[in-house]
Write a structure and sequence with these properties.
Layout lengths: L1 H15 L11 H40 L1 H19 L1 H11 L3 H8 L10 H18 L10 H24 L15 H13 L4 H8 L3 H31 L29 E3 L4 E3 L7 H21 L3 H20 L3 H18 L5 H21 L1 H17 L2 H15 L27 H33 L4 H19 L11 H26 L1 H6 L8
Antiparallel strand pairs: 1-2
Helix pairs in contact: 2-3, 3-4, 3-6, 4-6, 7-8, 7-17, 9-19, 10-11, 10-12, 11-12, 11-13, 11-18, 12-13, 12-14, 13-15, 13-18, 16-17, 17-18, 17-19, 18-19
Protein name: O-antigen polymerase
Keywords: Membrane, Transmembrane, Transmembrane helix
Length: 553
């Protein structure tokens, strides 16, 4: 019996042996080749550093003479960042995602310059150019997925017509000025170019994200990085609130009249930009790490989707618990930030995710996360009942004073009547960030804003684009077999669905949603390839027969 048992154990061990992968021993020639490659990479890095630094310092010196240090420093940094982003697009894209939530804080630490508002594009634009060249060289599609090609071309063509005929017409034939009136100084073409960049400029992020992720390791790195960013930003946001409460930061509490209710940069508290903190009036609007309070609100809303996805989809228990902590911090910041839209939409999005992704039926993972979240929030509510009640009262007062549905309808009616032509009143004419280049109109809802800028043809084209994107995203995540990938894909699809048809305010125009919407659409479309890759890895013989499509990026 003992012999039989020993034979069984030997045969069992022999079956397990092929599963263990031993690191291959490199020959002398291979080691020398690796050493030469590392030496070449270091040389290329140092050459690029010396050239870009020389050009940057020369340009910075000229700008310093004519415009001062506030123009010179961003120019030097911009040259360095763009040079390295073009040379190392993968690392630059990760740097871009890290920079986005801290952009507002960095902007005001370096110096409050309008140029710095576009600093993140010094990462993104060279990456997009480099990727386009790589795709051409390797004969890979740049537009991913192919289904969006037709509506994207349509809305792009419509926007270019608006840029040429409306913005161009305004540039060549400015409106007549009265006898005693001063002509408005504006650059309609520049306004249109910036408006087009805001409108469609981040669509290539779909492709960037698609090619950034090569395998499961890259995917987990990206999703976990996002959780770390959420934890850091929410931690800083809550610290900002505490600094205001204890009086280290004054906020707007000592101001008078209308200034008590207006966000101002002078009240800035270490992180982010303009804020309102007037406890005597029950008013608080925190910017977190962003430039403006409502950008912080939309960071919290969008982060709900990412924290939920990782909380239910990550294979590591540690990272699922970490995601639970980030989700709790999101809820806490939604309350203390004073942003009514965050207070309303963060729990709404959480419930919507539970229902639409089917995770409410996944009791094994839902119960620990649900119980943990309820306990954390319960403690927060019990220890701060006055703060919670103030936020709820503020939300109800605002809702009763201006119901969102009535506000949206009113905006549609107003802009339908006031748009100048069927192809719009001009790109950038309702884009807040373009106001430095010309006169703009404040439109506080997204699709009426698009209607005003690019007319009925442009808004129909963009609506078709997001329709196709949403429908393709649904089919994509439904095709995934791997449970974890499918769960993450479902969460990203719900995010795309929610943002595509949301018209309250204009999150698709500014950070962070303008970036996250297109980037995580690319992540969603990559998941079927990762799913297929997992199957091939499980069957080495089959994997060896197939050559994987891998971009050198």
């Amino acid at each position: 019996m003992a012999k039989v048992k020993s034979k069984f154990q030997k045969s069992k061990n022999s079956k397990k042996q092929p599963a263990k992968k031993e690191a291959p021993t490199l020959s002398l020639q291979e080691r020398l080749a690796q050493k030469r490659q590392a030496t070449k990479a270091r040389k290329e890095f140092m050459d690029l550093l010396s050239k870009s630094l020389s050009i940057g310092l020369f340009l910075g010196f000229l700008l310093f003479l004519f415009a001062g240090i506030k123009a010179a420093l961003p120019a030097v940094l911009g040259i360095l960042v763009m040079s390295f982003s073009y040379k190392y697009p993968r690392q630059a894209l990760i740097g871009f995602m890290i920079y986005v939530p801290f952009g507002g804080t960095i902007t005001y630490y370096i110096g409050n310059s309008p140029i710095l508002q576009l600093a993140k594009d010094s990462f993104y634009v060279p990456v997009a150019i480099a990727l386009w060249q790589i795709c051409r060289k390797q004969k890979l599609p740049f537009i991913v997925p192919q289904q969006i090609k037709i509506p994207l071309y349509f809305v792009l063509a419509s926007s270019l017509l608006t840029l040429v005929f409306i913005n161009g017409g305004q540039q060549l034939n400015p409106p007549p000025v009265g006898l005693l009136q001063t002509p408005v100084k504006e650059i309609p073409i520049g306004l249109g170019i910036l408006g087009l960049k805001v409108f469609l400029g981040y669509v290539p992020l779909i492709t960037c994200a698609y090619y950034l992720i090569r395998d499961k390791k890259d995917f987990l790195l990206l999703t976990r990085l996002q959780i770390v960013l959420i934890l850091i930003c929410c931690g800083l946001g809550f610290l900002q609130y505490l600094l205001l409460v204890v009086g280290i930061c004054e906020g707007t509490r000592n101001l008078e009249g209308a200034a008590l209710f207006k966000a101002t940069l002078e009240a800035r508290c270490y992180f982010g930009g303009a804020l309102v903190y007037s406890p005597s009036q029950g008013i608080i609007r925190l910017p977190g790490t962003f430039v403006a309070p409502w950008q912080w609100a939309w960071f919290l809303i969008s982060s709900t989707f990412f924290a939920f996805a990782t909380g239910f989809s990550d294979p590591s228990v540690l990272w699922r618990l970490t995601s639970l902590g980030s989700l709790a911090l999101i809820f806490v910041n939604a309350v203390v930030s004073g942003q009514r839209i965050a207070l309303a939409l963060v729990p709404t999005c959480f419930v919507m995710l539970l229902l639409l992704t089917g995770q409410i039926a996944n009791l094994k993972r839902f119960i620990p996360i649900g119980v943990g979240l309820v306990m954390i929030l319960g403690i927060a509510v019990v220890t701060n009942p006055v703060v919670v009640q103030e936020r709820l009262d503020s939300f109800l007062v605002r809702w009763n004073a201006s119901p969102p549905q009535d506000f949206i309808i009113q905006q549609f009616e107003e802009n339908w009547k006031n748009v100048d032509t069927p192809i719009g009143s001009g790109l950038g004419r309702a884009t807040n960030s373009a106001r430095a280049l010309g006169e703009t109109k404040l439109v506080e809802t997204y699709y009426p804003k698009v209607l005003y800028e690019v007319g009925i043809f442009g808004v129909l084209g963009f609506f078709a684009l997001v329709n196709v994107l949403t429908f393709t995203g649904f089919k994509t995540y439904r095709s995934i077999k791997n449970r974890n990938f499918r769960s993450y894909g479902a969460s990203m699809w719900v995010f795309i669905l929610f943002i595509s048809y949301n018209t309250y305010y204009y999150p698709l125009d500014v950070d962070p949603v303008a970036v996250y919407y297109w980037f995580f659409a690319g992540v969603l479309f990559k998941l079927p390839a990762l799913d297929k890759q997992e199957k091939e890895d499980a069957d080495p013989e089959k994997a060896n027969k197939k050559k994987r499509l891998q971009i050198k990026f």
